[in-house]
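TEACHING EXERCISE
Course module: macromolecular assemblies
Task: Read the component lines below, then compare them to the predicted structure of the full complex.
Student: A.B.
Group: 4
Components provided:
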Amino acid sequence: MNLIAVLILFPLVVSIVTFLVRKENIRSAVVRIGAVGTLGLTVYTALQYFNDGLRISLGETEMIEIFILVVEVGLAAYIIRLGIQTKKYLISVFSLFQTALILWFEFTQKHGIEVETSIVFDKLSGVMVLIVGVIGSLICLYAVGYMKGYHEHHTEVKDRQSFFLGVLFLFLSAMFGLVLSNNLMWLYFCWEITTFCSFLLIGYTKTPEARNNSLLALIINVGGGVAFAIAIVMIGMNFETLELSTLIAMKPEALVLIPVFLLCVAALTKSAQLPFSAWLLGAMVAPTPSSALLHSATMVKAGVYLIIRLAPLLGETSVGRIITLVGSITFLACSLLAIAQRDAKKVLAYSTIANLGLIVMCASIGTQEAIWAAILLVIFHAVSKSLLFLSVGSIEHQLGNRNIENMNILMHVSRKLSIYLTIGIAGMFLAPFGMLISKWVAMKSFIDSNNVIIVIILAYGSAATLFYWGKWIGTLLSNGVGKTDGHHGVFSLDEEIPIFLQAAIVVISCLAFPLISKVAIVPYLSEAFGGQAMAPIGLGNQLIMVIMMAVLILMPLGYIPLSKNSKARVTPIYMAGENAGDNEHFIAATGVKRKSELSNWYLEVYLGGKRFTFWSNMTAITLLAIGVLLVIWGWAL
Amino acid sequence: MLAIWIIRIILIVVLTPIVGGLLAGFDRIISARVQGRKGPPLLQPFYDVLKLIKKENIEVNKTYKFYVYASLFFIILTAVIMLMGGDMLLAIFVLTLGAIFFAFGGYASQSPYSIIGAERELLQMMAYEPMVLITAAGLYMVSKSFFISDMISQAVPAIVYLPAVFVGFVYILTFKLRKSPFDLSLGHHAHQELVQGISTEYSGRELAIIEITHWYESIIALAFVYVFFATSNPISHVFAVLACLVVYFFEILVDNSTVRVKWQLALKSAWIVTGVVSVVNLMIVSFFKF
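Instructor-supplied answer key:
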């Protein structure tokens, strides 16, 4: 018990201290110690409980309940006032409604409902704790260096680093609570705290754009919170329980499916699935560490975590089918939309949403194989995406912008950063890196569950994925000799150490995926579904993939000495016979020297406009509406 | 057991490009006849490669040649996995890896023509990739296994259940074999609008490697066709080889009777054909639950 409490409370304490300390040197030290401490604590906790798991039933939880209620009411008061101030009355209505509902439930209906097991540490929450703790604290560490550089470049933004860094740790604390709670009331509380943290982080710069986007994130996520609150009340009143594990163990009958559907809708808002994805795209106005945190270790992972938990209730039910379709539409539409983006962070954002769509698809199909793939996707996506965001953040400091077109000179500006970025991108789509393993299994399980349409959507979506990652790596490798006189920030050790560690984690987790599967995922599946689960990829194939991985790592070593001794004659590149002396210019029609300029394809005519987004959203809304009808229908019959 | 495995692998690595090279020679003779010329001898592709290997070593920078070898490595690995009867999805992913390394080579040469070629190559991959994956999915549905060895030991050939998927696969095969009208990224004829696209900056030994890689790729592409026809009955393998030859002959005719199309048409048509055939065919198969 003590260790779990320490794990949740330690980041909270660090958060408060960071918030209070205004002196930069001391604060940096506090954040560093806090990040390393959280990291160590996470690993220690995981080592302690990973094998046997842990189920805690607390006798006296009244103090905690009161604390939660007070914070919830305070938060609601703040949000309602904010909604009125900014004339976004919808926020106020949502917040008022859900708080009133929860209070009514708490004081009039809850008597007699006993929560036996409040905290569960099983293999799945173990995996989540590791993701939150390890990736999250590396991002906090990175934030120390990044924010210093950020305020040197952005003098127009008021320096509120204490606040920013404090919120990062608060976020981690809430995430620990979220993945460890079995008590739905606590889970809901942590859920709301993460919503609030993301609102604070997105609005950090206080520009009108940031303010609008943060309010948008708040509207959508508080709206999801309403669905969550209604689900809790329904579960409590109909089944006299507030435990997630009890809910999951029920039969998927009509009365259960309504709250499950509501919980899934809450999860879809949090995981930024269509039609709720606008907030995550808007979240990019925030400084990079917060984007990295939102996209990899926290926020969006909370949604898919909940869907993975609920997976046994989804499967072939109408709710499961609808959620699968929403996930697949999201996966396909966002993979295509990513092609049209030039802004590196936008590409990353669309790819996050697409991959979350894939996770949602896998989890809601509900078969053992599919959930195996979903959990692996969560892991690989977290490690690769966080590496990518951190690299892009540092690249932006180096190049002065984050347009992918300009990254062809990155090899000259910072070779290290281009290698880290390449590893991250490879992690997202190349065989034998992680995401691909999961896609493979996803494909297999979709066919096994006879979902032909989903198989076809997966095939198209992954082809689109290939295109936009491929041209990005290509741009990095094309190694142009652009102007290198731009302002290059310092690539500080504070930034490099976390990036290096994350790159190492990406590679190691790919090499070790058979082990992850054996130690964590297969035991979880055996427990959740009963019987003996099996890894869906055979040993022979796992071996081939590990060998490929090793070859990919060793390959660069093979060619470096070779090319140094080569006796090849070096010639200029082909410019149709009109070279102007270097590899950059050619002699144009009237004898003028002209620079050859190339740009990647973005297919903007097809995928760039608002129309594509509009129709994708419409499809998702229609699907959800059908879902509502099906659920009501199932209940009425 | 291990010794037999190693011998089989060595045979695959050695024989695949030889057969692929012969096919290329066959291709050139047929193409010449179609155009009313006599054409080169059957072994001309081998003479060409030998000639290329002897040429002087020229390069435009230090790194771009590496990708050609990386590409060859993964293409050979694909051939080994497929011809040993391994997992088809794994083979497809490794094949993609090989193809994408080739495109990276185009980028790395920094030459405008190469980079345009590389970009086109990526676009072509995006065009044909869905159909390749769906082919594997369809074959899995009828044989309940991704292992090619299982797929070719069914009682009934897969083509019976998957005729539309087969048509779709032949359609995108044109990309894979780098045939007109879908040879946007690496035209095969003398002076193309893009001066040989990705391969513009390659010469001598690396150009030979590209040629050999392509031989492997042709055989890999035809191996997919083979899987549609082979069954547990030994005679079916003869039919399967015949089917491969017929398909290849058909592709040569298409190559010679069409002109290159714009990328828009290539992408759209490939995706539409893929969508239609896969929805129709896979729906029917899943409805009857083979």
